[in-house]
Write a structure and sequence with these properties.
Helices cover 50% and strands 15% of the residues. An eight-stranded mixed sheet has the order 7-5-6-4-1-2-3-8, with helices on both faces. The protein folds into two domains: 239 residues, Spore Coat Polysaccharide Biosynthesis Protein SpsA, Chain A (Alpha-Beta Complex), CATH 3.90.550.10; 70 residues. By secondary structure, it is of the alpha/beta class.
């Protein structure tokens, strides 16, 4: 196997505080991998600016001018982390043999890339970066994250426990992944669907080096719901099962009411009636909401709008 060309793909959104700190770290790791002969000297660090409102794109442009190993793409508007990451992977796949996606904040252990590349050289096409523990998280963050992965597994989605978007993916896998045309994407649950040989690398996660997290609880819940509805139809099946169960219970209550009426033991009770109506009404509204979410996704898919639009490029990426 020849020495592979590596592109480190890093989505960025309002990262002006942390980018000057982490960019040199990514460059040092790339240089170290190159000096040890694991990756080619033509390897690059590719930043994807996801419509940042601060100086992130200006910093990326300056880095690209100072060092050709830094490259940049700028999206025409904010499209979200998953679309920005997808953009970088799709743009890089024709220029490299492998990609490693990682966040810009420095929390993921950059040195784990060394083991990822080794696993690729040993035959793996996808290498997942998996957190070995969550001791640095707050109790709430740890509880919600672990609950999310367990819920995804229960819903039938094929995800890797404690894996986010830190992963190595070969160009061969990306070529096949390009055939996945859906607009509603959840990458950590989609790559396992492609297949090919995969493995995991475990690492300890660090504290964010600077700036604030761009994934508050609201966005985390939205991502979780997108992941469930994009990868599984089990919520609709649960609604169907719940409907059948309620129908059976209702049928038994009707029989009971008829027997009570025939025996002359009918007692007017507004409480039981109110509870039954409220329960059925609530279940119906929730069911309509879940079904509406799926219908909305179908609506977006049929439009076939582009998942991202690149407005500017730096360096070698201008050649595309």
């Amino acid at each position: 196997m020849s020495v592979p060309v590596l592109y480190i793909v890093i989505p960025c959104y309002n990262e002006q505080e942390v980018l000057p700190l982490t960019a040199p770290l990514f460059r040092e790791e790339l240089q170290r991998l190159s000096e040890t002969g694991k990756v080619s000297e033509n390897s690059r660090v590719l930043f994807v600016n996801d419509g940042s409102r601060d100086e992130t794109w200006r910093i990326i442009q300056e880095l690209s001018q100072q060092d050709p190993h830094f490259q940049g793409l700028c999206l025409s508007r904010n499209r979200g982390h998953q679309n920005a990451l997808l953009c970088g992977l799709m743009e890089a796949r024709e220029k490299c043999d492998i990609t490693i996606s990682i966040d810009c904040d420095g929390q993921d252990d950059i040195r784990a890339m060394d083991q990822m590349v080794e696993e690729y050289l040993s035959g793996a096409e996808i290498v997942y970066g998996v957190r070995s523990s969550r001791e640095t998280d707050t109790f709430f963050k740890r509880f919600t994250a672990q609950s999310f992965y367990k819920l995804m597994s229960w819903m039938g989605a094929d995800t890797v426990y404690n894996h986010a978007d830190y992963r190595l993916v070969s160009a061969r896998v990306l070529k096949e992944f390009a055939n996945f045309r859906e607009v509603n994407i959840f990458l950590r649950g989609m790559f396992p669907l492609v297949g090919f040989k995969s493995t995991s690398v475990y690492y300890e996660r660090n504290e964010r080096l600077a700036g604030k997290s761009h994934y508050p609880l609201k966005k985390m819940l939205a991502l979780a719901f997108d992941g469930i509805t994009s990868l599984s139809v089990k919520p609709i099946r649960i609604i169907t099962s719940l409907g059948v169960l309620i129908s059976v219970v209702s049928f038994l209550l009707i029989i009971y009411a008829l027997i009570a009426w025939a025996a002359g033991h009918v007692v007017a009770g507004w409480a039981s009636t109110l509870i039954a109506v409220a329960m059925i009404g609530g279940i119906q509204l929730i069911s309509l909401g879940v079904i509406g979410e799926y219908v909305g996704k179908i609506f977006l898919e049929t439009k076939q709008r582009p998942r991202y639009i690149v407005s500017e490029r730096t360096g070698e990426m201008k050649e595309q």
